[in-house]
Amino acid sequence: MDPIHKAKLKRNYVQIVNDLEPKDVVDDLYQDGILTDNDCERVTNSNKTRKERCENLISVLTKRGPLAFESFLGAIRCSKYSHIADLIIPDVTATDSVPCGKNGENTSNSNDACEECSPYFPVSFLNPDIEDILKRHCCLILQNVEPKDLLPYSYQEDIFSEDECDRIKTGETRKDRCALYLKELSKSRKDKLIILLKASLQKKYQYIVERIQQPFVSAKSCTETDSVPISITPRCRINESSIERSTVLNQTDPCTRYKKYYVNTDSSTSQLKQREDYFSQTLKLEEDRDVNCTKQKHTKLVNCTNAYEVKIDNCPSTKRTRRDITPEEGQLVTVSGTTEIVPFLMSPGASKPDTLPNKRLDVAFNTLVSMMNRGLFDQFNGLTTRLRRRYRTDFDMKCVLGYLQANLELHKSNFDGAKKHIESALTICGKTTNTRYFTLELLGTKARMLLYQKKFETLQDVVDAAKMIIETDVVASSGRAAGWLHVQEGRLMAAQIDLLNPTRVNFIGAHGYLHDRAKASFEKALANFQEDKSEYGPVGFVYTMCRLIILLLQCGENGLTMDILQPDPTVVDMAGKYLLHVSGTDVTSRRVLSMHYHIANCDYHFRVGNINKAFECAETAHDLATLLDMNEFMVHAHNRLAFLSVKVPPSCGEINEADLFDILFGSDSCPDTSNIDDETSGLDVT
Q1: Do residue 628 and residue 498 come from a single domain?
Q2: Element containing residue 95 per DSSP (H, E)
Q3: Which side of the chain, N or C, has fewer Cβ within a 10 Å radius?
Q4: 182 and 136 within one domain
């Protein structure tokens, strides 16, 4: 947070602590991306008294970047605390400014840290580039960063060892821990240390990453009297979210991007798509996605002067990249125009697909996936056991087998078995030929397990860790691993939508925010599944398309918002196009995909007013979920059946003559009457 904004909060500290209930504003701050899930829990649950919660909230806000202040003002304006905003705003004028050199950046010509920060910095760094960045932004880092937030990623990427992490944690104060962190960092010689540092800061300190990426302003061009204006106008979250949704609706119809993908126009063949179309379709999709990212960026940040300041969730990383891919190599082109040639590895062995080990890996994976999808679990287990015995030292094979066995256990809702296979496979990832990709696959499976268990906070941590892996090398991490990860992220957002309270004032804004994030995640997943050559490519694509349709129709993941939300008619039409596209695939051959297809079909027919057809689709989906023993989707289909059953008009079927006489005059029709024929016995009912 800017120093002048910190001063305003400090000046009104007593009034804020005495009057504010943090629980009333954390939802708005979370919606704006100022607070994370852990921050919200820390503020609302960890302290016993309201004043302690207020103190905790202000402590967190002062370390959350330049947008935290205006978001806080907007939150208290929209709540019942407008009198607090009235106290703060008169102290903040439109001419308020922060002198250059006092805003966290050292603008002197010297390569040393400023006088205030120099006691916390080591004498020298083994990596001169990281030294230059840290000393240039010494105040920004020392005043805001909590090293404990960076240690998990630093340990994962082998920046620090376990002993070094423990040593950093021993600091009594935050600045002491910063000093220990800088001391250990000065000993590292890693080539990609700057990239790893930015990735570790990305989750909670994105504004610091953006400041680091800005061009350096020397003291010659910025004197002590120069100033940087600060906007204090609170943002309106509901209007902003509506602008985002209208921008998304105006984008090119994604159905045109996918219309040639996996469509089976010949019923005599089960092949969904030739493999050579992957690269050409991926190129077009990436170009469209970059255009959409640019449109949304300019919609939200019209006055933004920072070329690297990206705040749209469906952009792949903070610094946008564009990929130009040839079949032989991958070409990574940055926005600055510099080009770096890197191997194009979508999955282990993709660079040399004709070698025997890679053919063996692909054949094993596709064969086992086919067995699992057809329900041949005994054959699956038998083949897996034989492969484990045969390839005891092939860690790539062992990792693939662990990944597939974990997915099979999840299919059976055996979470303990799935966790065992995931943890076992993660221990050998470092010995494989592509550690990053295998780790990403297993984290995606772990995310799926946590989603089934409704452990949303832990799931968010796993997704964030996996996204950091993707951002370090977007090209090498593409494919089914990234695809399934984005699917779980999208379903996490959709599950959080189901938990929203429609009676809350900020329901519309929160729903729009989560809806757009889920939609962006599903679109990223579709892009990655198009790049995958295995049998999981078509499966993942159709599955994701069904989940996207369910999201767009807003009946809820669990089917409990069918009468609460109403999507725009243009969105319903778009979902119908997607559904028509999915119906052209070989979806009915796989019962799992057929179940998701019928749930999506149910939602679509309900939105267009065809209640009978919607009820039939819900029944089919429920029967398939019961047959597959998938409890989660049995509940989803049951909720739809319960809602639609009261809306389906009663049907009167025809009764034949024999049944008619049995009902009216049979022995069980009226036990108190005689069976002797009366004058009506000769009645001709025909």
Answers
A1: yes
A2: none
A3: C
A4: yes
Q: Rounding to the nearest 10 degrees, give the CA dihedral for residues 482, 488, 494, 497.
A: -110
pLDDT at res. 231: 42
pLDDT tens string 26-61: 888 877 778 877 778 777 775 567 878 888 888 888
pLDDT at 315: 36
Residue at a domain's end among 68, 88, 108: 88
Smallest CA-to-CA distance from 23 within 74, 66, 63, 75 is with 75
Has residue 365 been placed in a domain?
yes
Cβ neighbours of residue 365 under 8 Å, at least 6 residues apart? Answer: 400, 404, 534, 535
Helix, strand, coil share (%) of the chain residues, nearest 5:
60, 5, 35
CATH of the domain at 495: 1.25.40
Global pTM value? 0.45
- What integer pLDDT is reported at residue 260 of this predicted model? 42
What is the rounded distance in angstroms from the CA atom of residue 301 to the CA atom of residue 310?
9
Q: Note whether 497 and 644 are same-domain residues.
A: yes
> Are 628 and 511 found together in one domain?
yes
Spatial separation of the C-alpha atoms in residues 5 and 9, rounded to whole Å: 6
**Per-residue burial over 38-57, b = 16 or more CB atoms within 10 Å of its CB, e = otherwise:** ebbebbbeebeeeeebbbbb
For residue 331, tell me if it sits in a domain. no
The terminus-to-terminus CA distance of the chain in angstroms comes to 87
**92 touches 254 (CB < 8 A):** no
For residue 424, the model assigns a pLDDT of: 86
Domain match, 444 and 565 both? no
The number of distinct structural domains making up the chain is 4
Residues 53 and 148 in one domain: no
Please give the single-letter amino acid code of residue 204: K
Six-digit token pair at 74?
């907007």
User: How many CB atoms are located within 10 Å of the residue 289 CB?
Assistant: 22
Q: What are phi and psi of 547, to 5 degrees?
A: -65, -35
What pLDDT is recorded for position 164?
86
Read off the amino acid at residue 425: A
H or E stretch at 613: helix 611-628
Amino acid at 683: L
CA distance 25 to 264: 51
Domain that holds residue 74: 3-88
- 135: closest CA among 167, 110, 157? 110
What's the pLDDT at 642?
Answer: 87
Return the pLDDT at 361. Answer: 82
* 21 and 147, same domain (yes or no): no
pLDDT for 589 equals 65
Residues 55 and 136 in one domain: no
Cα–Cα distance measured from residue 104 to residue 115, given in angstroms and rounded to the nearest whole number: 13
In the block, residue with structure tokens 């910095």: 121
Chain-centre distance for alpha carbon 210: 21
Model pLDDT for residues 394-447, shown as the tens digit of each residue: 888 888 899 888 888 887 778 888 888 888 888 888 888 878 778 878 888 888
> Which of these, 532, 536, 571, lies nearest to 551 by C-alpha position?
571
In a domain, 685, yes or no: no
Roughly what angle, to the nearest 10 degrees, separates helices 631-645 and 591-607?
30
Residues of the chain with pLDDT under 50: 92-104, 107-109, 217-252, 254, 256-354, 679, 685-686
For residue 178, the domain's CATH number is: 1.10.533
